Amino acid sequence: MQNTSMKKLLFTLLAAAIGSSTFADTITLKDGTVWEGTILEETPTQVIIEVQFSATIKSKEEVKVSEIKEIKRLPVDEKEAAALMAKLKVTEDGMTAANYELAIKLSIQPWLDKYKTSKKRADVEALLKLYTEELAKVKAGGTKVRGSWITADELKWDEYNIAARRLRVQMEAQLKKREYVAMHNAFAKMDAKYSAAVDYVPSLELMKKSMAAVEGTIARAVEEQKGYDAERKRLLGSQTPEKKKELEDKIKAEQLEFRKKVAQEKKEKIRLTSYDKHDLKSVQDALSQAKKETEYLNKIDTKGQAEAAKKYQEALRHIYEKQWLSAKSKLEYAIKVFAKDPAVKKSLDDATRQAAAAGNKTGAK
Rounded to the nearest 10 degrees, how much is the dihedral formed by the CA atoms of 327, 331, 334, 339? Predict the structure, then answer.
């Protein structure tokens, strides 16, 4: 009884925090408690309702019929509309024309054809409008990255910043999944190739906040390595001689590929290299590198970087538009901050050369 009362209290507090759903069956109890969700099953003695406790947590609650004062069921068309909106209302980054067309053909249009007088028709029509408009943008060569639309022209001149933004999206997705080491791998690519990007500074700050989790993940891998090693030995020991030889050859091949991967990462100057959970030394090395990486990131002075990154982005657009003098001016500002970035240096060299050539042509006239 106490557990049920606590659940009711928790549901009430969470419902107030996240807002009650307008697309739910409701069960009102005699004590005033209201459960909102989807009724899954009914018997003469109880009703089972699936309740959304938060954006990611659902719970099946068994409610005694004797405790129920009133049940309100949502019409089927509204339930289907709710499911449709929940699934499709937020369009994902990088969707293709085929993705949009399939959503319209298989989900949105069938609902509209089926429920011509539904109270939720306006909502689904708005969803169709959204998908139709975004489909047109994709067909025109645009794409969406981190919720912002990028035109076909921008894809041509701002490839540098778009690549960095995609890595930021990857970082944020991996953080959400608590894949901290993979998150750092994405940041390392940005740090190595796109440090002058507009998204670099916010990505750096995000990475700084996540380094404790990176260290914790690798520290656990150190503790678990003995177990992985013992399991591998047990597995090998249980095989026939032929199968054991086959597995050992596979392990050697994996180790060779791992060493090549680490060598390539070092060549690319990635400070925190990959580790093999079966290789204690590689995990220990990674933990040591992670601690050094935390210190390194915390020492980076980002003063002036955000403004310089904007100047570089503007310069890239002006290069595309052949506004050489303007591009050169902005790049001269950016190079003071990003002196070691080869992309910025190359852009400045190109703009300087083109500006000089344009000046010579003007003088010749």
Answer: 160
Residue 269: per-residue pLDDT: 82
C-alpha–C-alpha distance, residues 162 and 168, integer Å: 10
Which residue segment(s) compose the domain that 69 sits in?
Answer: 2-74
Q: Is residue 256 part of a domain?
A: no
Strand partners, 42: 47
CB atoms near residue 308 (< 10 Å): 22
Query: Which of 244, 229, 278 lies closest to 258, judged by CA?
Result: 278
Residue 88 included in any domain: yes
The verdict on residue 352 lying in a domain is no
CA distance readout (Å), 326 to 24, 250, 310? 58, 57, 14
CB 125 within 8 A of CB 112: yes
Is there a domain that residue 10 lies in? Answer: yes
Judging by DSSP bridges, how do beta strands 68-72 and 143-145 pair with one another? Answer: unpaired
Distance CA 199, CA 207 (A): 12
224-262: pLDDT as tens digits: 998 988 888 888 899 999 999 999 999 999 999 999 999
Q: Which amino acid, residue 263?
A: A
Contacts of 10 (CB under 8 A, 6+ apart): 53
Comparing C-alpha atoms, which of 99, 11, 105, 22 is closest to residue 50?
A: 11
pLDDT confidence bin for 297, thresholds 50/70/90: very high
| Residue spans of beta strands (DSSP E) within 133-176 | 143-145, 148-150
Determine the residue type at 80.
Answer: E
Shared-domain flag, residues 66 and 121: no
Q: Can you give the C-alpha Rg of the chain in angstroms?
A: 29
Mind listing the pLDDT tens digit for each residue in 123-156? 999 999 999 999 999 999 999 999 899 999 999 9
**DSSP-derived secondary structure letter, 238:** T
Residue 54: name the closest of 42, 37, 41 by CA: 37
- Calculate mean pLDDT across residues 335-364: 87
First CA to last CA across the chain, in angstroms? 93
Q: Which two tokens stand for residue 345?
A: 């240096």
